[in-house]
């Protein structure tokens, strides 16, 4: 999650460089009874893993493998992510 925080807004063209671009997208959306090992291995060796994870957390996307994490892992991260990245409320005048 720390890499995602660092990479969050620094690379807006990250998708074009993802290792996932060369693989069937279904690889990253295994059925609940199927292992996600292939997708996780691809993601963890990807140069844009942090940006990808940051995007998924910003979107609240809990489907598929993003940034080397499973939906379950991201659900666990979302509360902390949102607390860290929510805009400050504007004071009323």
UniProtKB/TrEMBL annotation:
<feature type="binding site">
    <location>
        <position position="20"/>
    </location>
    <ligand>
        <name>[4Fe-4S] cluster</name>
    </ligand>
</feature>
<keyword id="KW-0963">Cytoplasm</keyword>
<dbReference type="GO" id="GO:0005737">
    <property type="term" value="C:cytoplasm"/>
</dbReference>
<keyword id="KW-0805">Transcription regulation</keyword>
<dbReference type="GO" id="GO:0045892">
    <property type="term" value="P:negative regulation of DNA-templated transcription"/>
</dbReference>
<dbReference type="InterPro" id="IPR034768">
    <property type="entry name" value="4FE4S_WBL"/>
</dbReference>
<dbReference type="GO" id="GO:0047134">
    <property type="term" value="F:protein-disulfide reductase [NAD(P)H] activity"/>
</dbReference>
<dbReference type="GO" id="GO:0051539">
    <property type="term" value="F:4 iron, 4 sulfur cluster binding"/>
</dbReference>
<comment type="similarity">
    <text>Belongs to the WhiB family.</text>
</comment>
<keyword id="KW-0804">Transcription</keyword>
<keyword id="KW-1015">Disulfide bond</keyword>
<feature type="binding site">
    <location>
        <position position="52"/>
    </location>
    <ligand>
        <name>[4Fe-4S] cluster</name>
    </ligand>
</feature>
<feature type="domain" description="4Fe-4S Wbl-type">
    <location>
        <begin position="19"/>
        <end position="76"/>
    </location>
</feature>
<dbReference type="GO" id="GO:0003677">
    <property type="term" value="F:DNA binding"/>
</dbReference>
<feature type="binding site">
    <location>
        <position position="46"/>
    </location>
    <ligand>
        <name>[4Fe-4S] cluster</name>
    </ligand>
</feature>
<feature type="binding site">
    <location>
        <position position="43"/>
    </location>
    <ligand>
        <name>[4Fe-4S] cluster</name>
    </ligand>
</feature>
<dbReference type="GO" id="GO:0045454">
    <property type="term" value="P:cell redox homeostasis"/>
</dbReference>
<dbReference type="InterPro" id="IPR003482">
    <property type="entry name" value="Whib"/>
</dbReference>
<protein>
    <recommendedName>
        <fullName>Transcriptional regulator WhiB</fullName>
    </recommendedName>
</protein>
<comment type="function">
    <text>Acts as a transcriptional regulator. Probably redox-responsive. The apo- but not holo-form probably binds DNA.</text>
</comment>
<dbReference type="GO" id="GO:0046872">
    <property type="term" value="F:metal ion binding"/>
</dbReference>
<dbReference type="Pfam" id="PF02467">
    <property type="entry name" value="Whib"/>
</dbReference>
<keyword id="KW-0238">DNA-binding</keyword>
<keyword id="KW-0479">Metal-binding</keyword>
<keyword id="KW-0411">Iron-sulfur</keyword>
<keyword id="KW-0408">Iron</keyword>
<dbReference type="GO" id="GO:0035731">
    <property type="term" value="F:dinitrosyl-iron complex binding"/>
</dbReference>
<keyword id="KW-0004">4Fe-4S</keyword>
């Amino acid at each position: 999650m720390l890499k995602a925080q660092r990479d969050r807004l620094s690379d807006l063209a990250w998708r074009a460089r993802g290792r996932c671009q060369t693989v069937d997208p279904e690889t990253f959306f295994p059925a609940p009874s199927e292992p996600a090992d292939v997708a996780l291995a691809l993601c963890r060796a990807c140069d844009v893993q942090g940006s990808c994870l940051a995007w998924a957390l910003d979107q609240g996307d809990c489907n598929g493998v993003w940034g080397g994490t499973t939906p379950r892992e991201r659900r666990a991260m979302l509360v902390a992510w949102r607390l860290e990245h929510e805009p400050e409320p504007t004071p009323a005048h």
